[in-house]
Write a structure and sequence with these properties.
Elements: E1 16-20, H1 23-32, H2 51-60, E2 67-74, E3 77-88, E4 96-104, H3 113-128, E5 133-139, H4 143-151, E6 155-166, E7 169-179
Parallel strand pairs: 4-5
Antiparallel strand pairs: 1-2, 2-3, 3-4, 5-7, 6-7
The protein binds coenzyme A.
């Protein structure tokens, strides 16, 4: 692997680590995901305010709440972020689960990092929180994320029709989950 953390071939030995977000990481996320190219074709929703993650970082390190984030690293290289959000199926006090999300920098996609990072996040959430279910939703055309979550152990559950407004049109979403006790 090169010193900048990039590699031409899929590196089965690469060590993906999730760690707490720093203010410098947020600077980088803002720069990388500022326009349509950075987030990729399925994650650009127009410009969003940068204040909220800064505020949550200052208040609680972007951890321990209903909106959370960890940085994804390979070696010492920051390659992206994972997030998790509380979702309720009925009453939030008894029936909430986590919904995860991921964004890798363009230079680090297609190397197996997304698969590993999402599996690690699932393991982390089952180890440190009490939820029974971790879910993820992705665009019906986002083949890379569909493959990544399947390889990370998620099971396809269904298609949510015309759920997401993006790029001037409605888009179907696919929902997947991992259960604590399969
Ligand atoms: C989606 C994303 C997290 C996947 O992570 P990744 O590290 O790039 O994916 P992986 O290397 O783990 O590969 C996953 C699988 O998808 C395949 N894949 C990767 N990019 C692909 C593409 N553009 N088209 C088709 N398949 C693709 C890989 O070949 C691999 O499958 P295989 O093992 O059968 O060959 C990453 O590409 C990303 O951050 N994309 C932009 C943001 C995004 O879409 N986030 C998800 C929102 S729900």
């Amino acid at each position: 692997m090169a010193e900048d953390g990039t590699s031409d071939a899929r590196d089965v030995t690469l060590e993906v680590v999730l760690r707490p977000v720093t203010a410098a990481d947020l600077d980088r996320f803002e720069a990388e995901f500022a326009g349509p190219e950075g987030p990729g074709p399925y994650q650009w929703f127009g410009h969003t305010p940068a204040q909220r993650p800064r505020q949550l970082l200052a208040e609680r390190g972007l951890l321990g709440g209903d909106e959370n984030m960890l940085s994804v690293t390979v070696g010492d290289t920051l390659v992206g972020r994972v997030e998790w959000f509380r979702r309720a199926w009925g009453r939030a006090d008894t029936s909430s689960c986590w919904e995860i999300a991921i964004g890798l920098f363009t230079a680090h996609r297609g190397r197996g990092i997304g698969t590993r990072a999402q599996r690690q996040l699932v393991d982390y959430l089952f180890a440190h929180t009490r939820v029974e279910r971790v879910q993820v939703c992705t665009d019906a055309e986002n083949i890379a994320e569909q493959r990544a979550v399947e390889k990370a152990g998620f099971t396809f559950e269904g298609r949510i029709r015309r759920a997401q407004w993006r790029a001037g049109a409605w888009h179907d979403q696919l929902i997947y989950s991992v259960l604590r006790t399969p």
